[in-house]
Structure formats: C-alpha cells, structure tokens
Amino acid sequence: MKIHRLIIPILGLFLYQTTVAQRLDGFQSNAINKQLELEKTFLDKVDFGRFKTHLTAITSEPHPAGSEANERVKDYLVKIMQQGGWEVKVHPYDVYLSKEPGESLVEIVRPFRMPLNQQENFVAEDPYADHPALWKGWNAFSGSGDVTAEIVYANYGTKADFDKLNELGIDVKGKIVLARYGGNFRGFKAKFAEAAGAAGLLIYTDPGDSGYMRGLTYPDGIFYNETSIQRGSLLTVDWTGDALTPFEPALPLDSKEKIKRLNPEEVGLHTIPVTPIPYGSAKEIMSLMKGQAVPTGWQGGLPFTYRLEGGKELKVRVKVDQKREFVRANNVVGTLKGSSKPDEWVILGCHYDAWSFGSTDPNSGTSMLLALSETLGKLAKEGQRPERSILIAHWDAEEHGVIGSTEWVEQFREELGAKAVAYINLDAAVSGRNFGASSSPTLKKIIMESAKAVSFPDSSKTVFEVWARNQSEPSIGNLGGGSDHIAFYMHAGIPSMSGGASGPTLYHTNYDNLHFYEKFADPSFKMGGAVEQLVGIISLRLANADIIPYQVSRYAKDLEGHFSGAVNQIRRFEKDFGGFMKSLEAISSLKESAENFDKQLAEKLESGTFDSKKAKAINQDLLSLEKSFIDPKGMYFGNWYRSLYASNDPFSGYASWILPGIQYEIELKSTTRLQEWDDRYAEAINDLKKKVDILIEKF
Fold first, then answer.
1. For residue 615, what are the contacts with CB-CB under 8 A and spacing of at least 6?
2. Is 460 found in the same domain as 511?
3. Which residues of 590-603 are buried (b: 16+ CB within 10 A; e: fewer)?
4. Hey, which residues does 657 pair with through a beta bridge?
5. Are residue 130 and residue 277 in the same domain, yes or no?
6. What confidence tens digit (pLDDT) does each residue in 599-642 have?
7. Whole-angstrom Cα distance, residue 72 to residue 332?
8. Residue limits of the Peptidase M28 domain (predicted)?
9. DSSP label at 143?
10. Do 568 and 427 share a domain, yes or no?
11. How far is CA 506 from the centre of its chain?
12. CATH of the domain at 601
C-alpha cells in the first residue's frame, strides 16, 4: 500500500506536467517544477461541491443593492473568506441611486381600459418564482411622472432608430415610446427618447430576440416567456460609478474625509418615467396600433405587422414614482498576503448584488470565487502561500452602474497604479458550459496557456482544446462596458481580463434562480469547479512568476490590426484618408523592441540567472507599461475614460471600443481631429517602446 501511495502522486504529477508547456512564462527554469507541483496540488484540492453550496446560500432570496438581503449576502462573504484564512475588509460608500422600484403602473386607457402585467407569472415547478420579496419589473434611475399619451414604436431605441423616425416624419414629442431591448444600453434608449421629446418610455424583450421565435420558453426552455421582464439601470452620465462623485470615491457621508458631491439636478439624470414590461403586455398595446408599417429590419416576433404609431384612438398611461437616495454600498475585499512580494497584487473580482436571485448573473461568479478563496486558503495554511498577494473582491451596486468597484478604484487609484499586476473580472463566470474570455493584450497568452492545464468536465479534452475548436489559438475578445473591469482598465490603466463559462440566462428576470440554473445552465454543477481550477492556475502563475508573465509583444501585434481596421472604417466616408503614419511608424518600432524583449527575457529565464533585486526592478517597470495609454486629457466623450487603448462604446454602453479616441471620430464621421489622434497615439506608443527598451537594458 505504501508503494501505491507513493506511485500515484508521482504519476499524477508526471501526467499533469505532460499536459502543460514545460516552459512557463515568467518562471526561471529552476522554478518550473516547483510551480507545476503546486498547480497539481491545487487542482487536486478543488472541491467541486463547494460551488453549489455557496450558490445555494447566496441566491436563496432576491438581494438588490441596498436591501437587507444583500447585507446578509455581504455577511456570508465575510464569514466564508475569514474562515478560509483571508484578511477581510469591508469598504463602505454612500452612493446615490434608486434603491427600490417605488410605485408604477402601465395601462391601456383608450379605446378601452386594461391594466397591463408588470411581473413574472408563478411557475408551478419553480419553487423560487413566488418568493414574496420579488418586485415588479423596474428600471433604476427612471424619472418620476404620470403620463397618458399616444404610442410610437422606436425599434431598439438606438440613435439611428430615432434618426430614422425623424426622417420618416414621425413626431415623438409628447408621446410614449415603446422600444425593444437590444442594440444598445437601456439607459441610452431613455436618453434618446427624452432628447426627442418623448413623455415616457416602455421597454420590452421581443420574442424574436428572446422568446418563442427562438425556441422553448421558460419553464420548458431557456427563452423569455410572455411574462419575463428584463430589469436594469438607466444611469447614463459621462463617467462610470456613482452619479455624484466622478473621479472621487463616494466615501460615507459621515466619514472624516468629506467628498464634494455634485447636485443631482445638474448631472443629467432622466426625468421621464421609464419602466420595462413583458412582451405579453407589449402585445396588447401593439396589436391596437394603426399607423404605417415599420421599415425593413424593425419587425419583431409578435404575430402581426408592427406599426410606427398607435394613432389618436390609442392612449396608454405610464406612471412611475421612484425615489432616489443615498444608499450604503459595501465592497468586501479579502487579501491573501504574498510571502515575498506582498506589495504586488493580483486582483480577482465579481459583484454580488443582483436584480433578483442572481444565480447566473452575477452569483455564479461570486460562488466560484468563494470556493477559490477556500482552496487557496488551504494551500496557504499548509505553507504554500503565493509569492504575490492575491486579492478577491466582491463588489456592491454594480447593477446600478458599476458603482462599487469604481469607487474602490477611485479611492485607491495611486496605490493600485503602483501595485496592481492584473484585474480578473468574473461576473456571471459560471453561467453555462461555453468558455470564453476578453482581455487586454498582455494577458491573452497566460489565459490560453493556463487553459491547457485544466480538464474540461465530461470530456477527455482540456479547456483550451474545447475553447480553441481545432484552431491554433481561440478567439479572445476585447473588453467593453457593462462590468467591473471598467475602472481598472479604462481609468487606471491596469491590465485586465474577463472570462468564464457562459450559457443560457434569463437575464435580469425573476426567473434567474437556482431552479433555472440546475435545469438549464449546468445541471451537473461541474463547471464551477472547472472554472475555479482555471482561474486558480492563472492567479497562481501571475502570483508566483519570477517576472510578471505579460506577453509584451502582443501590444504591437494587436495594435497593427486595430489601426488597420480603423483606417478601413475611415475610408468608407473619407476615401482619400492617408492613414495614421506617425502611429504606424511607432508601432513598427515597438514591435522590434517588444519582440527583442520577449526573446531576451525567455533566454534569461532559461539560464536561471535573475537575482531577486534585478527581478524586483524589472517587475516594477512592467507594472507601468499599460499606463503608457493613460492620457490625463481623456476622451472627448468623457474625460473620466483615460485609456487611449480601450473604452466602452459611449453610444451603446456595452460594446468594446478599441482606439476609442479614433473610434469616436469614426462614429461622428469626422476627420477634423484625426491628426491630433495620430499625434497622441504615436506619443503613447513611443512611450511604451521607451519603457520596453529600458527594461531590456536591465537584463
């Protein structure tokens, strides 16, 4: 028996080592086997059952930001991480938002009176659907009002859609707009409707986008049924985070440090009443509309021809009475202090507030991170503490406008600039079985390499093999808007990634609960453990590498593609555009330096001759690379967004804008500032090249 006990661990380590690259980026040759042994131990310690335990506990009741239920979730997070041996701190902020839906109603007034449904039906097989704490559908940051008016259908409510209505001579002023979800952030639907003079706005999910036109509806399938309602925030200020404290943390009102807050009346919050409805209610309105048929592409999945106007004989009443107030938001941040480099931080995060139960969004990510904190805690207790500090953060009030994480970044911006190695965002990270990721350039390789070390559940393949689908490299997206990486990456210049296993979700509905998760998202509950293993490998490699394992040459490769794409876009409206010559020259120089850096670093690591003092100096310089793209002047669409490299799309809210300064001009079809942007980008890229050259000299 003793012989078998000895052979099995050795065989397991051998098999593990054969599945991963023998050269680990950032590790000296004499440190690789130790790291691989640690990773094998970590993988074995992952308890796949803990994910379900935490998901069940966290999503047992609805817990929107500011609720007592969310306080209970916060306390659970603190308890579990403290029990795991983490140093836990709660960071409070007083933020300005709509805590509750208040009073609302939607009804047809003419040609007959009919109150319209605003909440999901009970479902016999779903024990969560009749929870007494569930609310009607609502949109946080709606204006308050009680209006009765004619109806105008505005398709997805994008800027282009409102422009089309104007072109067709459809007057929106004084009318209630009906728009379907999709195409842009819901807050922009409200912004464009209000700018057009609308008196109110109703938003619904069309069955052609998620409903019976796509497949079976809940509870028989994964698509919206006729009572499903997407909730969500409407906040659309020119920055991310608390509406009243751009650039500054919304510290508690009773804090010793006083923060100047803007006047709520002066920040452009919505004034018209806005509320979401299910397509069952939208059908009742739209079936009565008598105006001209919609243009091509505007028809949805309801069983009749869509019309642009309801006419004078159709009147609808929309009432919303919603309070805005200061609400305490609490971030829970746990730290596993590094053994030799405690002032270099690898940060992982996911928000924990949810519109209802949040079993897929966001708390599949929360539960995975809790399980990971337990596994890493066990390793630390056994003397295998990471070299760098690992921080796991649970953010509050994300659903209202990515608020909690933004306030924390604004509070610790300078410290993060000096210490943060990477931010890994895991919002809804285990909501299915389809692995994917988006990332800043330097972190793409470590995601792919780490994915080769983890088995995909119920498969003989690795996560990488399933993800890549027989390609040499899987598709890795660019980071856009909509989640907690924004402040880290787009404001503070910290390399970031977002990833996980996605799948079906009844997004922001009252049906996003454990019953839906177990029936449709991942009935086996195996993906929680698999994603934990992958995120753990990424974290441990970032934490333990002798030299931070950024792939510096990826900057030039990606920039070449992005500038080429930008030039092609510009030439569609300015065919004689000559290109960004200064930037392209800078990229060429950067490419040469970065490839030289990667080559020399690999040789140096292979020789194993880095001393700790030299490694420390190089690592400190590596932390500054992404900051080359941080421009204090910021973007013309909002100077809070300081990254020249990436931003969320200010017109859609969600999409990723790479080279956002240039992309904004493309959106405006303007060439007046292109020379300025060529100068600014060339300066940033040349600054990055100089930093790389200085790093090479330190070898």
1. 546, 547
2. yes
3. bbebbeebbeebee
4. 647
5. yes
6. 999 999 999 888 889 999 999 999 999 999 999 999 999 999 99
7. 12
8. 331-515
9. B
10. no
11. 17
12. 1.20.930.40
CB–CB of 162/196 below 8 Å? yes
In a domain, 643, yes or no: yes
Structural domain of 418? 48-95+339-544
Dump pLDDT digits (tens) for 398-446.
999 999 999 999 999 999 999 999 999 999 999 999 999 999 999 999 9
Provide the CA 210 distance to its chain's centre, in angstroms.
Answer: 21
Distance CA(398)–CA(166), nearest Å, equals 35
Under DSSP, the state recorded for 223 is B
Q: At what angle do helices 554-570 and 581-607 cross, to 10 degrees?
A: 160
Instruction: Copy the structure tokens of residue 500.
Output: 């996980």
Kindly state whether residue 570 falls inside one of the protein's structural domains.
yes
Compute the distance between CA of residue 296 and CA of residue 294 in angstroms, rounded to an integer.
7
Query: Given phi > 0 = left and psi -120 to 50 = alpha, else beta, which region is 23?
Result: beta
Q: Are residues 454 and 587 in the same domain?
A: no
Which residues partner with 315 through β-bridges? 110
Residues 6+ apart with CB under 8 A from 384: 38, 41
DSSP collapsed to 3 states, 490-552: HHCCCCEEEEEEECCCCCCCCCCCHHHHHHHHCCCCCHHHHHHHHHHHHHHHHHHCCCCCCCC
pLDDT tens, position by position, 5-17:
333 344 444 445 5
| Residue 307 domain flag | yes
Name the token pair of 369.
């991170």
Residues 649 and 566 in one domain: yes
Q: Which residues does 221 contact at the CB level (< 8 Å), separation at least 6?
A: 215, 520
Q: Is the pLDDT of residue 658 over 70?
A: yes
* Residue 293: C-alpha distances to residues 101, 289, 297 (Å): 34, 10, 11
Specify if 687 maps to a domain.
yes
Nearest to 482 by CA among 360, 663, 652: 652
Q: Is the pLDDT reported for residue 536 higher than 60?
A: yes
Res. 654 pLDDT band, cuts 50 70 90: confident
Cα 533 to Cα 462: distance, rounded to the nearest angstrom:
12
pLDDT at 481: 87
Place of tokens 């030799």: 340
Q: Name residue, tokens 């029990």.
A: 83
Q: What is the CATH number of the domain that holds 194?
A: 3.50.30.30
- Count of beta carbons in the 10 Å neighbourhood of residue 122: 12
On the CB side of 290, CA atoms within 13 Å amount to: 7
Which CATH number goes with the domain that contains 453? 3.40.630.10
- From the list 393, 359, 418, 378, the residue with the least C-alpha distance to 619 is 418
Q: Are residues 226 and 363 in the same domain?
A: no
* pLDDT value, residue 20: 47
> What is the C-alpha to C-alpha distance for residues 185 and 236, in angstroms, rounded to an integer?
9
